[in-house]
């Protein structure tokens, strides 16, 4: 519909850029007075946010289909799960890796933590429910912070339990 089109706005001010890992400052490519597109409606925000995960899902499904067509379901599953003693060709190993990495990216991006795609989807839903974009953004940011604390706690739990370090030492990397 006409009302669902992205809206055009003008940049009013630009910050100093961002700091890179080496400490140098990088300028942002957006200039004051430049026109940009943004979502004016929750439905548009949802469509934009869900597009990336859909593409990732299609890629994962395509690589899975190619892998099964190349070798059959059982051999593809062995290559996908990297089972010991699996006799997989190089092409099957690459295709199974592409399928698995796309599924991992999909799962990670759907975590409802803003600014990941899942967080943007959560913001769009909250925006639709509340009718307030700013309130929805704050909600999505708080959920994202909650997930960050949960991941920190999980990492600390694994560290204290010794699982992470034990596997690292057993693999011969220490």
Describe the structure.
This protein has 174 residues and is mainly alpha-helical. The longest helix has 30 residues, at 42-71. The chain is built from 6 helices and 4 strands. The mean pLDDT is 78. Helices cover 63% and strands 7% of the residues. Helix 1 (42-71) packs antiparallel against helix 3, helix 1 runs antiparallel to helix 4 (117-130) and helix 2 crosses helix 3.
Produce a short descriptive summary.
This protein is mainly alpha-helical. The protein is 63% helix and 7% strand.
Key terms:
two-stranded antiparallel sheet, mainly alpha
How far from one another are the termini?
A: 58 Å
Q: Kindly report the oligomeric state of this protein.
A: single chain
Low-confidence parts: none
Number of strands: 4
Sheet bearing the most strands, described?
A: 2 strands, antiparallel
* Net shape: extended
